[in-house]
Design brief:
By secondary structure, the protein is α+β, with helices and mostly antiparallel strands. It is built from six helices and ten strands; from the N terminus they run ββββαββββαβαβααα. It has a single domain, classed as VC0467-like (3-Layer(aba) Sandwich), CATH 3.40.1740.10.
Length: 184
């Protein structure tokens, strides 16, 4: 990975078997050349709502997503409202990660932030120094520029195929191959 990889996405190659990342799109939110990479899977909704996991949280009937296989005891959020959430970490134009949680609760309670502004994640995807580079060399991932519509506007079940098609017609065709060719 390169230092300017924050704000890019990793799209799992069509034949990836790892169940954590099969047909996933991962937004890179942090890259430290001496430490590793952190990102969140954008298209793996869990069967639970944000308010079900967080105590003392305003009513917020939005899905929460599996951010990755690491740190399942943590909650993260990526949003488009860095203009009003203090201490948010800039990812790219129009996208931020985290920020002041008490302020976030206040903004949600007062309807300043809605589901179209934010996505919550349980856990994260993390790669140690050199690990992601090895996976890229093996062809496990396709790297592309993040389209901010991927965060909220494209349904989760269509995001992987959409992002593949955005790269090339060739990848769009491969993405349409059924998981089990005998079902074709």
């Amino acid at each position: 990975m390169e230092e300017n990889s924050v704000g890019q996405i990793l799209i799992s190659e069509p034949f990836m078997e790892d169940p954590n990342f099969k047909q996933s799109v991962v937004l890179i939110c942090d890259y430290e050349p001496d430490h590793g990479t952190v990102g969140f899977i954008l298209n793996k909704p869990l069967d639970v709502k944000v308010g079900d996991l967080l105590q003392d949280f305003p009513e917020f009937d939005e899905d929460i997503y599996m951010g990755g296989p690491v740190g399942h005891d943590t909650i993260h959020y990526v949003h488009s409202r860095g203009d009003v959430i203090d201490d948010a970490v800039f990812i790219r134009d129009g996208l931020w990660w985290g920020g002041n949680f008490e302020k976030l609760k206040f903004l949600i309670e007062n309807k300043v932030i809605t589901g179209s502004d934010i996505k919550f994640f349980v856990g994260y995807s993390g790669w140690s120094l050199g690990q992601l580079d090895n996976e890229l060399e093996m062809g496990s991932w396709v790297v592309d520029t993040m389209d901010n519509n991927y965060l909220i506007n494209i349904p989760s079940d269509k995001l992987w195929k959409s992002s593949m098609a955005n790269i090339s017609d060739h990848l769009a065709i491969i993405a349409d191959i059924p998981d089990h060719l005998n079902l074709n």
